[in-house]
């Protein structure tokens, strides 16, 4: 298990206000609107259900037994229902889901924002999130299982980071080995490979169970979107600045930078 806990931020110029704002919005939605996971009205109404998107209709995503047992009424989503492609990327299924996603955004988002600029980074993030959901829907178009989370958008951030900073050192926690510095190419590459293999394995599981679990294909779609879109959002000025960062002295070890 590779758990990133930080990266080398040397050469970062701008304060990543958008990254901080995205983290704050995700926290606010989870605690204020989702009731820390207890508000099923909001969670089920505003998460993305593939069947709803492909058929253009609003469904009750809780099964009838759960509705009866917990006395939960039908929960309508936004109109048009396709707006859940945006709302779902700011929602989470639990504390672990929230913490994992925001940790990755905190570590990798600031450097990508620094390279793209505030406005472009926000647009990039949202487009990657939508692309991730679209990929999930493509592989499970008739699924009535709701999907939610910032994972797809953050996967896009990882893709952008991988393309621009492949040699940047990332501090990871590796089981009994403790904290080790590894290049982003290895850390993010291993994560992407895991999502791809898990996505392939989930196809057979979906055929047997009808869907559910982790939306691995959303992660793959977000990662690929990030790899493709970051080239469109970069301009010569930011590219030159990124290259200058890449050429900084390699003598500075990332463990010397606590931020």
Largest beta-sheet details = 3 strands, antiparallel
Question: Which word captures the global form?
Answer: globular
Describe the strand arrangement of the main beta sheet, using strand numbers. Answer: 1-2-3
CATH hierarchy, class: Mainly Alpha
Radius of gyration: 19 Å
The CATH architecture category equals Up-down Bundle
Strand percentage? 5-15%
Overall description:
With 259 residues, the chain is mainly alpha-helical. The protein has one domain: Rhomboid-like fold, CATH 1.20.1540. Helix content is 59%, strand content 7%. It has 11 helices and 3 strands; from the N terminus they run E-H-H-H-H-H-H-H-H-E-E-H-H-H. It has helices at residues 17-33, 40-46, 50-55, 64-70, 84-87, 95-116, 118-139, 151-164, 184-209, 216-233, 236-246, and strands at residues 2-7, 169-174, 178-183. Strands 1-2-3 form a 3-stranded antiparallel β-sheet. A hairpin with a 3-residue loop joins strand 2 (169-174) and strand 3 (178-183). The chain starts with a strand and ends in a 13-residue tail after the last helix.
């Amino acid at each position: 298990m590779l758990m990133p806990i930080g990266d080398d931020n040397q050469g970062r110029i701008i304060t990543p206000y958008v990254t901080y704002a995205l983290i704050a919005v995700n926290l606010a939605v989870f605690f204020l609107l989702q009731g820390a996971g207890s508000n099923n009205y909001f969670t089920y109404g505003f998460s993305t259900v593939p069947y709803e998107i492909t058929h253009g209709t609003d469904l009750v995503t809780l099964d009838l037994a759960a509705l009866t047992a917990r006395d939960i009424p039908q929960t309508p989503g936004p109109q048009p229902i396709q707006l859940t492609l945006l709302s779902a990327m700011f929602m989470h299924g639990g504390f672990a889901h929230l913490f994992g996603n925001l940790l990755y955004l905190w570590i990798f988002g600031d450097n990508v924002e620094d390279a793209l600029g505030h406005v472009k980074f926000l647009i990039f993030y949202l487009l990657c999130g939508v692309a991730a959901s679209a990929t999930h829907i493509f592989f499970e178009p008739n699924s009535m299982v709701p999907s939610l989370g910032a994972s797809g958008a953050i996967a896009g951030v990882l893709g952008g980071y991988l393309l621009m900073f492949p040699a940047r050192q990332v501090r990871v926690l590796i089981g009994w080995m403790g904290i080790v510095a590894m290049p982003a190419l290895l850390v993010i590459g291993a994560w992407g490979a895991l999502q791809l293999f898990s996505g392939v394995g989930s196809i057979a599981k979906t055929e047997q169970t009808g869907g559910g679990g982790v939306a691995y294909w959303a992660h793959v779609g977000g990662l690929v979107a990030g790899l493709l879109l970051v080239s469109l959002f970069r301009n010569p000025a930011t590219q030159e600045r990124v290259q200058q960062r890449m050429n900084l002295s390699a003598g500075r070890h990332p463990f010397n930078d606590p931020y």
